[in-house]
Amino acid sequence: MKRESSVPGAPSEELPPEIAAARLRLLADASRALASGLDAEESLRRLARLVVPQLADACVVDVVEGEGVRRLTVTDRDPDRALRVLSGGVLPGPDDSACALAKVLRGTGPVVVTDFGPSDPDDRLSSAQGALYRTLGARTALVVPMRVRRQELGALTLVRRSGDAFDEQEQSLAADLGQRAGLALDNARLYALQEHTAEQLQLSLLPDLTGLPHLQLATRYLPARERAEVGGDWYDAFPLPDGSAVLAIGDVVGHDLAAAVRMGQLRNMLRALAYDSGDDPAGVMRRLDRVMQGLTGIELVTAVIARVETPAAGPWRLTWTNAGHLPPLLAEPDGHTLLLEEGHAPILGVDPALTRETATITLPPGATLLLYTDGLVERPGEDIGRGLTRLRQHAAALAREPLPVFRDELLTRLSDVQHDDVAVLALRVP
């Protein structure tokens, strides 16, 4: 028969100074391990490695997953024992089980197990725990919850083979470790949820380009790798009534939800103004600047607005204007590259009366036009010129590749140390 008891809350006794110091060091080391990153599972594995052998011969970390329990890690003084019991599968949930782990996950609190007998064969979680205890050679075990806001996210199980009981201070220390582990797990899950929501929001704000079947386009948006924020990077492409098309890219200042919302507003205003006015790119940019400053709270924006004319006979023509953005890149099939630096003026949001000019170029057959945001080329502490040189070199090497390959390879080669959002819009001239 298996004996279990709830951990008592009796006052702790005075500890020898060296033992007290060792336990404080363990608590400090555990706190650092749990706070060292947002990969909760790896942090919990580090915690288990700290607990063994300082507090126990083995440490098991179980996390609640859906309706079941997943055994995340088993750490043992003897690595072979751990390998024999660690399983990637999901164990049954705690609702119908009578074992100590189930009780802890149902909110009972820390439980000490001191006697291990046969398990109920109909209780699958209890049977799994019994097999775990037998493989680890347990003679006493302490199960503590990883609890946050009255919710059990999992449990730590500390196992000893010596039979030495966990004293009150050790039980209190283990309970503290469980609480800190629960906070780390909860924070990581909240961060992951925030990151997923932010990325989905950003992607939902990016345009649907299916209305341009006659253009060969390739686009991509990559969120920054080091944060869970939406940003103001944006691109767009849409047809005009005369059969030409507008391509645009830009960056609204900010890296938060407000920047993403402003980005959506700006893109919608651009569509309406360009479609209805019939102006050239510089005229559309001036209108956008005036409307932006008069009707919105958007402050500073960089942007490129380009118009592609695609006559049935004769060469394609590009007209564009640039408001403080990085210059578009034209890569020809022979490897020649050109930064389109004409038509440049200050960013939007400074003065709507600024003079803006439209530049013009003939697009050679087979050439690739690339619009991009600064995250593709900027590196902290590096001159932007080096980033643009790097971009031209890679674009030249990829200029004859199919457009999706051009886009993907360019992103792979240039975003290996990505610190900012990246948006790209590429057009291949037939």
The stretches of 5 or more residues where confidence is low (pLDDT under 50) are: 8-12
Give me the CATH architecture of the largest domain, please: 4-Layer Sandwich
Helix proportion range: 25-40%
What's the Cα radius of gyration? 31 Å
Task: Output the CATH class name of the largest domain.
Answer: Alpha Beta
CATH homologous group name of the largest domain: PPM-type phosphatase domain
What share of the residues does DSSP label as strand, in percent?
A: 25-35%
Give the quaternary arrangement of the chains: single chain
Protein name: SpoIIE family protein phosphatase
Keywords: Hydrolase
Domain GAF: 39-195
Domain PPM-type phosphatase: 212-429
What can you tell me about this protein's structure?
- The structure is a single chain.
- The chain folds into two domains: about 5-195, GAF domain (Beta-Lactamase), CATH 3.30.450; about 205-430, Phosphatase 2c, domain 1 (4-Layer Sandwich).
- Helices cover about 35% and strands about 25% of the residues.
- It contains ten helices and 18 strands.
- It has a seven-stranded antiparallel beta sheet.
- Helix 3 (about 80-85) runs antiparallel to helix 5.
- The chain is elongated.
- The chain starts with a strand and ends with a strand.
- The model is unreliable at about 10 (pLDDT under 50).
Short description:
The protein is α+β, with helices and mostly antiparallel strands. The chain has helices at residues 17-35, 40-54, 79-85, 100-105, 124-136, 168-205, 257-277, 281-295, 384-398, 403-414, and strands at residues 3-6, 58-65, 68-76, 90-91, 111-115, 140-148, 151-160, 216-222, 233-239, 245-252, 301-309, 316-323, 329-331, 337-339, 344-345, 359-363, 368-372, 422-428.
